[in-house]
């Protein structure tokens, strides 16, 4: 991989997400060589992907070049690479651009959409875990409306204007709210020759409440906000299958839709060589101890979504969200410095800073450790926190400007099909509609 | 195409570029049904594409949804469509989404890259006429540097870091200048483990001066600006061929480069049915009279790059730039209104407002009808004019913020490979390098 030998120990970090970046920052100017590998050349701010999908933000505003994060970090090497396999005996990583040895390895590969083995949904549904996926969804939504204009078949037109979002976590709730706002504020102006009131936004949740990781009051309020916006909230329904048009469930309820967004589960991104059953917990997470060491290894660590540190408060590991990843990255960074200085490592203690979700304009829910609130103030808190955690001054300013503009104008201007999206079997879908 | 019948005459406009949009605005609230067709759902501000390619701007900032332009225009219908053929006898347009009849037709299809029949350059070179093309070029530039890191073969590494831009018009000059600034300001920081001083930016011009459409003093000054930035300017050299690595010319000079950008020519986008030899001038432009009527038709008009109106001052038609397109669109719009009111049409008179090009920070050249100037003030004028003509308040603010940021920080943050680019024959290129 063309990385110079060094007399310092080599730390290889796989993944430039919240955890990997937080960790890397701690290793600046230390007696270590650090190699960061990622399959993208940018860090991406996943909590705002739904705004890219719904034309509220430009993709570049929520991404940040990893090389820029590492500017002025001596002994740091970034490589754009797909990791293929890890040989834990030889301490060697194989990638598409060659092999690399490590002294210490940090796995921070994050998570990916989990379809729980459902091939139909995987083939025909949309995911929203990466920027390209979010742009595909944006294109599909816009293309659906363009296509709806062209048909006189009411059945087909309704399917094109119906949306089914599966999963009542923050992603599902936020996307459903944003689509409802588009339906209300933009569609009637953009498509005066289409009866856009017929567009339906359905949010389907398997459990008995939305935002199950938040408080009961947040769940209740989020549901009420969504209903105010005209979203159909379906609870206690489990989506069974999807063929590109028909959604079946475990109940009598079914949907006809050209767009199913699957936000109902993630699993950790495992790597060959570290994916033996003994390492993995539910959802492919790697079991780690309180120092983030992967069970059975002293020199392999895991942080963020991919790591499962079982504690009294979190018997199944910490939530797969930005905050635990950032805190774990920082803790591990400090510990690796201690390791270099031959000092004992300190166990990780998670500090719950609360959680939040936004449903729409002036509508958000916030659970802080000591206080819970909803509505306008919560919405401002949500925006402030997201701006604060966004990397890069320019990104913050541009996102802020966009939000002010969208707020004042009830608009989202980035509704551009720059990346036309074709489902691999769109033809089949058209055929389905004729049936 | 599912467009309602109307008692008013139907105007079909093909193309939502500068000309088509300027024209459409004139027809608002008139006794006409207007159908605008475009293969994209957005208008795109072509003069700033090079800033998308070089990471200075986000693509969404220089694009604007066509439906938003037409919001609140009664009797306007936008359709996302590829026009396939025109039957001028039946006054019928065939598209990928069905047929449509017209009473009056306006062809505003613009221009595309012209390779003058050179298959090698077409296959292996990069164009920069659309947003997807600009994003592909951005990805290729960044991928080249990532790849350069991985090789010890100095020959291959140089080819990856060399850039050949063919064409000394505004596009070539502006792209060369931007790349030179990246080489100076960003590469050494982003790639500390690469000797980025070896990166070469070559601008190759067939004629004996750059910016041939501008004044001699502008040409001279632009060339000096480029040389100050370290660009190699080659004049009186005609590029002959390119195989993905070797550039041959009509002289002894040759280049090894993984990136050839072809900005040396455009031709009008013609449509089947209107492409008979009798209609077409050089570069596939449609010959029109002073009312923009295509020769031989009273009901078919052409404006912008696709139209060639031969006048005393412009025996080969007006320059293929934004200003003539906008002015022609407005003039034709007024004339179509006169036509509806049974008034005589007024011939088009082009008002030359001057031209300008920017080379880099504080370096631009401006030719106004009465005064020519270069340097810092010219650069501010260039920015002001481009912001002014950009459509959309949000776009203007976001572009302005980006420019201020880039100016203050000597930076361009949108250097993201969101759309990984694979040349169809990249494998061949790798093979070439081994030879």
UniProtKB/TrEMBL annotation, chains A, B:
Recorded family membership: Belongs to the NADH dehydrogenase family.
Protein name, per record: NADH:ubiquinone reductase (non-electrogenic)
Pfam families in the cross-refs: NDH2_C, Pyr_redox_2
PANTHER family listed in its UniProt record: EXTERNAL NADH-UBIQUINONE OXIDOREDUCTASE 1, MITOCHONDRIAL-RELATED, NADH DEHYDROGENASE
Top-level taxon of origin: Bacteria
Listed InterPro entries: FAD/NAD-bd_sf, FAD/NAD-binding_dom, NDH-2, NDH2-like_C
UniProt entry keywords in alphabetical sequence: FAD, Flavoprotein, Membrane, NAD, Oxidoreductase, Transit peptide, Transmembrane, Transmembrane helix
TM regions (residue ranges): 376-393
Every FAD/NAD(P)-binding domain range: 10-329
Gene Ontology molecular function: any one: NADH dehydrogenase (quinone) (non-electrogenic) activity
Catalysed reactions, semicolon-separated: a quinone + NADH + H(+) = a quinol + NAD(+)
All residue ranges annotated as the External alternative NADH-ubiquinone oxidoreductase-like C-terminal domain in the record: 353-407
EC number(s) per entry: 1.6.5.9
């Amino acid at each position: 991989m063309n990385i110079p030998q060094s007399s310092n120990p080599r730390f290889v970090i796989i993944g430039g997400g919240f955890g990997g970046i937080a960790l890397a920052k701690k290793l600046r100017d230390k007696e270590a060589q650090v190699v960061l590998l990622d399959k993208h050349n940018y860090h991406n701010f996943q909590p705002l992907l739904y705004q890219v999908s719904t034309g509220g933000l430009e993709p570049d505003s929520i991404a940040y070049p990893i090389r820029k994060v590492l500017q002025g970090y001596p002994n740091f090497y970034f490589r754009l690479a797909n990791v293929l396999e890890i040989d834990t005996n030889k301490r060697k990583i194989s990638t598409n651009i060659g092999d690399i040895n490590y002294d210490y390895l940090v796995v921070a590969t994050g998570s990916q959409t989990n379809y729980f083995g459902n091939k139909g949904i995987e083939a025909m549904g949309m995911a929203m875990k990466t920027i390209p996926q979010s742009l595909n969804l944006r294109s599909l939504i816009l293309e659906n409306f363009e296509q709806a204009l062209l048909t006189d078949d009411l059945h087909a037109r309704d399917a094109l204007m119906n949306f089914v979002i599966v999963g009542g976590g923050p992603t599902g709730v936020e996307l459903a709210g944003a689509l409802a706002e588009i339906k209300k504020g933009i569609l009637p102006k953009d498509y005066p020759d289409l009866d856009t009131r017929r567009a339906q936004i359905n949010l389907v949740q398997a459990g008995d409440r939305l935002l199950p990781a938040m408080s009961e009051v947040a769940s209740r309020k989020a549901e009420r906000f969504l209903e105010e916006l005209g979203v159909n909230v379906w609870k206690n329904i489990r989506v069974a299958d999807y063929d590109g048009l028909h959604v079946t469930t475990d109940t009598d309820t079914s949907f006809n839709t050209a767009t199913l967004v699957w936000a109902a589960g993630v699993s950790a991104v495992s790597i060959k060589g570290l994916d033996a059953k003994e390492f993995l917990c539910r959802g492919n997470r790697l079991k780690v101890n309180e120092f983030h060491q992967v069970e059975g290894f002293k020199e392999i660590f895991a942080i963020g979504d991919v790591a499962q540190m079982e504690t009294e408060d979190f018997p199944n590991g910490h939530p797969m969200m930005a905050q635990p990843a950032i805190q774990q990255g920082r803790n591990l960074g400090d510990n690796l410095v201690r390791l270099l200085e031959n000092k004992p490592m300190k166990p990780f203690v998670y500090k719950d800073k609360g959680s939040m979700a936004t449903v729409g304009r002036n509508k958000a829910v916030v659970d802080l450790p000591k206080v819970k609130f909803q509505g306008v103030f919560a919405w401002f808190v949500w925006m402030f926190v997201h701006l604060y955690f966004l990397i890069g001054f320019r990104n913050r300013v541009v996102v802020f400007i966009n939000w002010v503009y969208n707020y004042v104008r009830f608009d989202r201007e980035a509704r551009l099909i720059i990346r036309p999206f074709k489902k691999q079997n769109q033809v089949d879908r058209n055929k389905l509609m004729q049936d």
